[in-house]
Design a protein that fits this description.
18 strands; 320 residues; alpha+beta; 22% helix
Length: 320
């Protein structure tokens, strides 16, 4: 870890939005330019009207336009030391060997299980913060999408605002295709190729998110499935989400009575205990392949991340 002390910005400043920043939410823009300022403080100065866009109050969700003039008020930041990830940390350094693809617009990283996509909610830093520490030469690095903390595999990071907008549009229009690998208990019915079950997300008092199938109020959700290999009382499956709901694959697998192995939230305790006894220490869900259009060349890109060693070992054991 390296330790730095925050400096205090005690003067009003004015920022002009560039074409590359156009389309970004105002709150996200402020979080990026006011590094080290707590999220709560960002929303406080927005509520008070201390931030002005073109001399007018603006909502946090306001989408910036090229040429907008933003008034940034004086912001007092605690002078207490702030711990930031150092490029010498083991978890950061490991990312060097986990870059599956890179060009001038984006990076595809094979995210390891156990590291969050981004920091927050008690998590000191995530993959994006680690990548910024590893590649400080880039002024812009932003996640194009998310993966659950315990899910490994392909994660796209944009190196340009224009590329991020392009990728977000590809996700909205469902141009981007993802292929996950997962291990489930029992023998999967070969006739079951598609699970269509609407999902609704609930927030518990603890702040934990739970997703469930609800045919009355759920959002339309669909996941395609293919059998990869039948094993000893288990099946290695490929899952292709047609929609991008929270925990979609995990909930759909549980809905058809084949929950994801190692999933402590929606899974089978019996199956999880069996896998744990075999040495599995994580959830068996891996984003093995992502297909999308290169924002620069317009060519179709297919990027793959191999099944991690700890998951391959479980498959080999269950073949016997």
């Amino acid at each position: 870890m390296s330790i730095v002390k925050q400096e205090q910005n005690l003067k009003v400043s004015y920022k002009t939005v560039t074409a590359d920043d156009a389309g970004q939410r105002l709150d996200n823009y402020l979080l990026r330019i006011l590094k080290g300022v707590p999220r709560s403080m960002i929303y406080r100065i927005l509520r008070r009207g201390e931030v002005r866009v073109n001399k007018k109050r603006a909502e946090p969700s306001y989408k910036l336009c090229a040429g907008d003039e933003i008034r940034v008020p004086p912001v007092r930041v605690s002078t207490a030391p702030v711990i930031i990830p150092s490029a010498n940390l083991h978890s950061v350094q490991n990312l060097k060997d986990r870059i599956c693809f890179e060009n001038e617009a984006l990076i595809v990283v094979d995210k390891p299980a156990g590291i969050a996509a981004h920091g927050g909610s008690g998590i000191e830093f995530g993959l994006i913060e680690a990548l910024r520490a590893l590649r400080p030469e880039f002024s812009f690095l932003e996640l194009a999408h998310r993966l659950d903390r315990e899910t490994s595999g392909c994660l796209i990071v944009a190196k340009r605002r224009s590329a991020l907008r392009n990728l977000h549009e590809q996700f909205r229009s469902r141009v981007i295709k993802k292929r996950y690998l997962t291990l489930v208990p029992g023998k999967w019915d070969r006739r079951l190729k598609l699970v269509e079950a609407p999902l609704v997300r609930n927030e518990l008092r603890s702040g934990e998110r739970m997703v469930e199938v609800n045919f009355k109020s759920g959002a339309p959700s669909a996941t395609g499935f293919d059998i990869v290999e039948e094993l000893n009382d288990a099946t290695l499956m490929a899952a292709m989400p047609h929609t991008g709901r929270t925990h979609q694959i995990r909930v759909h697998c549980a809905y058809v009575k084949h929950p994801v192995g190692g999933d402590v939230k929606y899974g089978s305790e019996e199956f999880n205990d069996r896998l744990k006894a075999l040495g599995l220490k994580r959830m068996f869900l891996h984003d093995a392949k992502i297909t999308f259009t290169d924002p620069v060349s317009g060519k179709l890109l297919k990027v793959e991340a191999p099944l991690p060693e700890e998951l391959r070992k479980i498959v080999e054991i269950l073949k016997k």
